[in-house]
Design brief:
It comes from Labedella phragmitis. The protein is of the alpha/beta class. Helix 5 (about 205-210) packs parallel to helix 9, helix 14 (about 420-435) runs parallel beside helix 22 and helix 18 packs antiparallel against helix 20.
Length: about 625
């Protein structure tokens, strides 16, 4: 069984939105985009224990906090889920009366269309199960209520049956806990301390493991309680407690008619109820380098997260991993990259379906491009845009997957020609943040740098990132000779494209930065152990300084040495920065802030400059690189 489609109405920050899922789906987006809301919505519908929490929902779970309308009538939260790929056993258990024909390609039900049932044997058409959660405010009880239902068939209710029409679900058949256990939804939240997951409270992970492991849990509780009662020696026989007990018994006897004998007062290890045992029994763990057992909540955050994850994998194994719908929020929390990759690979391999949210490159890298859904808000709607694999060739993605992972998370992407440029622009942004009032740093704006191999390869990434729905900018050196038409066309796909009048970033820096800044830079780096064999004499003539700087920069190109970024960092004012680079960053900043363009626009419009001929027209074919 798999989650194929989700519709959310009036739940938290979402008024009405739909999301489509693959066998494995990675949800990415900025903070408050709605990733956690999606997981919580699925939990409301499919989580076996979720409806047993009180309250099921509250005021803040309603869109804009509005749980009654202008007429005082209750507003309903509704979450619809379509489950597909049901096994024969699941179809038998749910009953054919609750199933509908689903067209996978069209992502819609077709059984009520003319001739729809006749397509039941077509490729991509199968029986699916629609279920839903409905919640609202109950004025009579002054409380919030919610329940889950089969969405098919629609109930036939007599219009005079006011009570049924007014009831939650209006006659829909309830979707019970036993049904949800068949769905196998397991949810690992992001903000987790293990305080409940690793306890034995009802619905906890350990309690679920005990229940799934087989019979005998009832006997376990009664046997444990009996052993606590019959401890030898009894707790009350500890000398200090025995003395207190005798004193209490004698004093209580003055005011209360106590049972005769020494056993009229006693100390026991607990309340001797199942519920109390559930609350006080704790898992103790010893982790290297110590062999001392301590309560699980005294472990580090990362260890607790992995303990919780380990319990979930046990549950998945007990249910049969391939029948589990596994939702996991931000597996990267407090985990090093190698562990993030290991956890993610395990989930993708062992779980029937995984729905993961993440802000981590090592996690994102493990997913195929067509499994990634990028989330963003459009006013009241949550939009989930899957990556179209036809726009991004697999080889291009895999070759640059670490950079793609960061770009996927970004608000916009600045594509540059080489690793030197990739460190220069952030360095210029650092200085502008310090000296230019109102400027917002690239990192704070959510702009990711994407370094290409150079040699005119910047242009081909414009169509790719535009196809991903990103704001996209490009900057490159002056080309050698005439550009081919496909590069001219690709340049038009960027929101803006800047072509340098120079043939190398080093020339831009040497010519655009004052001599005094060069001197500060050379005085600083000439003492570094990785400084090239190009002696710096402070008495060197001003006209010879830029040439020496250029030689040093070319000898130490790239991000490994980052000498170009060091030069930029020695700029103390905006006037010391290369005007060309400032124009690029101020142009991006003003576009993101929705303000008029700032500064001059040399070469910003003439995307076909550099002997490339007439200005290009926008090509209609957005085939990926």
């Amino acid at each position: 069984m798999r989650v194929r489609h989700l519709r959310i109405q009036n739940f938290r920050g979402i008024e009405d939105s739909e999301i489509h899922f693959k066998a494995h789906t990675l949800l990415v987006g900025g903070n408050n985009a709605g990733k956690s809301t999606i997981c919580e919505a699925l939990d409301l519908v499919l989580g076996p224990e979720r409806l047993y929490r009180r309250p099921v929902i509250d005021e803040h779970d309603f869109y804009m906090g509005k749980y009654v309308d202008g007429n005082g009538e209750p507003v309903e939260v509704r979450i619809d889920v379509v489950l597909t790929q049901l096994t024969p056993e699941e179809r038998r258990r749910f009953g054919d009366q609750h199933l509908r024909l689903w067209d996978e390609a069209a992502s819609e039900f077709i059984d009520e269309d003319d001739g729809g049932v006749d397509r039941s044997g077509d490729e991509g058409v199968d029986w699916a199960l629609p279920v839903c959660f409905i919640g609202r405010y109950d004025r009579d009880e002054d409380d919030f209520v919610g329940d889950t239902f089969f969405c098919h068939p629609e109930p036939i209710v007599d219009e005079t049956d006011v009570e049924t029409l007014a009831s939650l679900g209006a006659g829909l058949v309830p979707f019970r806990r036993a049904h949800k256990r068949l769905a196998g939804y397991v949810y690992l939240r992001a903000l987790r301390t293990g305080s409940r997951a690793l306890s034995l409270q009802r619905g906890s992970l350990l309690d679920t493991i005990l229940r799934l492991s087989g019979d005998g849990s009832a006997e376990m509780w009664s046997d444990t309680l009996a052993k606590l009662t019959d401890l030898d020696p009894a707790v009350g026989d500890v000398p200090q407690l025995k003395e207190v007990r005798e004193d209490l018994r004698e004093r209580l006897g003055r005011f209360v008619n106590m049972t005769p004998g020494d056993n009229s007062a006693a100390f026991f290890a607990s309340d001797l109820t199942r519920q109390h045992l559930r609350e006080v029994v704790r898992l103790f763990v010893a982790t290297q380098p110590s062999d001392h057992l301590v309560p699980y909540d005294k472990q580090g955050t990362g260890s607790i997260n992995l303990l919780v994850f380990a319990l979930l994998t046990i549950i998945a194994d007990l249910k049969g991993s391939q029948s589990v719908i596994f939702a996991m929020e931000e597996p990267e929390i407090a985990l090093p990259p190698h562990t993030q990759r290991r956890v993610t690979r395990y989930v993708l391999k062992e779980m029937g379906q995984s729905i993961v949210t993440s802000h981590s490159g090592p996690v994102i890298e493990q997913f195929e491009p067509d499994s990634i859904v990028m989330l963003h808000r459009e006013v009241t709607k949550l939009i989930g845009t899957p990556i179209d694999p036809s726009k991004v060739k697999r080889k291009t993605y895999l070759t640059n997957k670490r950079q793609f992972a960061e770009a996927i998370l970004a608000r916009g992407v600045l594509v540059v020609e080489g690793s030197t440029e990739a460190v220069v622009f952030p360095a210029v942004s650092n200085v502008l943040e310090r000296v230019h009032h109102g400027y917002t740093h690239l990192d704070f704006s959510g702009v990711s740098m994407f370094a290409t191999p150079g040699d005119g390869s910047v242009a081909k990434f414009g169509p790719i990132f535009k196809a991903l729905g990103k704001k996209t900018w490009g900057a490159c050196d002056k080309p050698n000779g005439t550009l081919p038409q496909d590069q001219i066309d690709d340049r038009t796909k960027f929101d803006r494209f800047w072509e340098s009048p120079e043939k190398g970033i080093e020339d831009v820096l040497v010519k655009g930065i004052p001599v005094e800044t060069h001197r500060r830079f050379l005085a600083d780096v000439s003492g570094r152990p990785d400084y090239p064999h190009l002696p710096y004499d402070p008495q060197i003539k001003d006209e010879d300084v830029p040439a020496l700087t250029g030689k040093v920069l070319k000898a130490r190109k790239g991000e490994a040495y980052a000498y170009a970024a060091v030069l930029i960092e020695h700029c103390e004012t905006e006037a010391e920065l290369p005007e060309e680079l400032v124009d690029v960053l101020l142009g991006i900043d003003s576009e993101l802030q929705g303000e008029p363009e700032l500064g001059a626009e040399p070469d910003a419009v003439d995307v076909a400059s550099g002997d490339a001929g007439d200005e290009a027209t926008v090509a209609e074919d957005e085939a990926g690189a």
